[in-house]
Amino acid sequence: KIPVILDCDPGVDDAFAIVSSILDPQIDLKLITTVSGNVTVDLTTKNALYLVQDLKSKVPVASGAARPLLRELEAYEPWFGESGLGDYPDASGKLLQTATDDNAVAEMYQLLSASEEPLTIVGTGSYTNLGLLLVEHPDIVYKIKQFVLMGGTLSQGNMSSVAEFNIYYDPDAADLVYRSGVPIVTAGIDVCKKALVTFQSNDAIAKMGKVGLKLADLLKKYAEKQVAGYIVYDLNTISYLLHPEFYKSEDYFIQVQKTGPARGATVADISSKNDANVKVLTDVDDAKLNAWLVQELSRLVQ
Ligand code: BDR
Ligand code: CA
């Protein structure tokens, strides 16, 4: 089993990462931590708790950073509705569980310290909690096996012509992560745009019980629609972790632009004069990804 901490800001696409990591028997999901991003951290935490509850999972949820490391909270137009997860929370009834408040970094630290084997940290929000962990607990960095992150772009951005949201939102934290020396794999905009969840797959997901129906509905309402299907950015972290063979990658030395008009850009040094710090996913076998996803979510009704 792959021991994993999932740091996220759900988020419709984060929800797909959460659900598949809870359902997959090969993943040992030890902790979900939340961060502000798509919406405020109280809402991303609530959304994570609803998903955990609906899946009858026992995975603990710890809420984390309420704002970026060195910046004030900036309000962006929410991509997934005011709640961050459409009407998912309203349609789910009463929330019975709570999160350990503002405790994400402490919980991560505790888990890493106690674990005999190094843990994978999956990040599908901005990297504020991860940056804090690196700065506050440098003694434990050797216990992080790898970061598998959604973020960045080598071509077009979605916050500016050059910047992707998770990096743009907290570029200072992203910079810390990229410089950490921990092995990093990124699913950026480039590969995520190729990893479309087809309409046919989504129709199949809609038939997978209450949660399947709600997830499919969220994609229909909120995901970026392309000719052949929906972009579900964050899902690619979990699918990569389980099936790296679905993906092609290239290793680059990448630096994060922290300020100015290129804030949030992930600039790759193609001269290769520096040692690579990031494995960037560049292509995906979309058919295999879809077959895997449908199979994975069919566990909702097993
Ligand atoms: C990323 O930004 C967020 O809004 C999504 O959840 C995803 O993590 C895509 O740029
Ligand atoms: Ca996200």
From TrEMBL:
Hydrolase keyword on record: yes
InterPro entries recorded: Inosine/uridine_hydrolase_dom, IUNH, Ribo_hydro-like
Listed Pfam families: IU_nuc_hydro
Keywords, comma-separated and alphabetical: Glycosidase, Hydrolase
UniProt-listed SUPFAM superfamilies: Nucleoside hydrolase
Top-level taxon: Bacteria
Inosine/uridine-preferring nucleoside hydrolase domain: residues covered: 4-289
Entry GO MF terms: hydrolase activity
Protein name in UniProt: Ribonucleoside hydrolase RihC
Species in which this protein is naturally found: Oenococcus sicerae
